[in-house]
What we know:
This protein has helices at 6-22, 28-43, 48-67, 72-106, 122-137, 147-155, 157-160, 168-176, 182-214, 223-254, 272-278, 281-292, 302-320, 324-349, 353-372, 376-386, 397-405, 407-416, 419-430, 435-459. With 470 residues, the protein is mainly alpha-helical. It has two domains: 6-177, no CATH class; 183-469, no CATH class. It is a multi-pass membrane protein. One of its GO terms (cellular component) is plasma membrane. Its main location: membrane. Belongs to the membrane-bound acyltransferase family.
Amino acid sequence: MVFSSITFLFIFLPVILVLYYIIPDKFKNVVMLSASLIFYAWGEPLYVIFLILSILFNYVCGLDIGAKQKDLRKAKLSLVFAVTVNICFLGFFKYYGFLMDSLNAVLPVNIPYRELPLPIGISIYILQAISYLVDVYRREAEPQKNILHLGLYISMFPQLTAGPIVRYIHIEEQLKRRTLSTRRFGQGAVYFITGLGKKVILANSAGNVFEHIWGLQAGHVSVLTAWIGCISFGFQIYFELSGYSDMAMGLAKMFGFEFPKNFDYPYTASSISGFWKRWHISLGNWFREYVYIPLGTGHQGRSRQVLNLLIVWMLIGFWYGDSWTFLFWGLYYGILLIMERFWWGRSMKRMPSVVRHIYTMALILIGWVFFFSPSLGAAVKYMGVMFGPGASGFIDKQAFFYVTTHWLLYLTAILGSSTAGYRGIRYIIDSFEDGRAKKAAASVIYIGIFLISIAYLVTEPSNSLLYFKF
């Protein structure tokens, strides 16, 4: 089940909200945990067993690490064991097919194997489980003795499938008690509707353009058409992931939780480092806290820092997907960040902001080619079209068609991926002096976005989540 579906919007969510608000406080976590398991089992009836086993395993390991706090060596061994099991669990399901394909590519014989479907959300809940175990080991959090609380933290349906990745210490107290209010519920509804519009209206529409261009025959694509396809994918993945994160934050507020911001207008950045401070923030913070800092970069020389950055970005690339293109994509950003930090970062600051922004967006778009291509060869071939070799010319009728028929989509996407879109909505609302008029204007705008999104869902039932492929 996905948030942007008729079933979720008009059956699952209303039922859970009614039960959650009418039931006594001491049973609210039971309702949330039950809802989360049902939500997961809706699309993964078998893999919900593995989710439950993960909860039980990490619950026992957390208690074990907490019980051995007086003996750091034993506590560390318990932590290493628990983290290793979690990583192996993730590695088996996510990288088993990749490993077998790689072996078959180099071995003289072909090893047959059965391809396993990837459990949805496993990349999220495994990282959250590791966060809990490490925080307990560091004594930044107490081992959770209430299995309902830990189960809810690992499996909470608002962020189970696509994040944000929430650190345990940031939500520990909220698992025990939280405040519900009409104001917070209203804020959550606004976040959710905004995210729904991003996903259904903008991401799906941009994705349709990209899929059409990607499906064109080689030799029949112009330079401009190739760039339009790449830009369309850039908008698709941004509005899908940020939209889903907005929906997760909105749902969390409706149930009394507070999730961290996951995207902060990354396409407005004027450097690659600035982009990654704004893109998938919770993921970057997780790798910084649990991988980069433990590697000891703060007290090492430049060569060691470079090595550790490459390790981290290789892991980030592999976290996104199980192919060599994702590994290359991660290393691509690792190298760019190293170059900005140690070589041309200071020179960039002296450049005009427009030049820095063009530089950043060009490199981001090139990176997306590695991200969406099925192989490195396909990525190189597509980039060849973008820069001339292999293209049918600089511009053709197809490029003109996309620009003239989808200009409103791209204009809306540009506004929506910058602060201009938000400021525009606020300007309309604030133009009314009376408080009731402001609320009425806001209601009309967001109800309108919701109704348009529903219309898109009804007319275009195909609404898969791009993130599920990774």
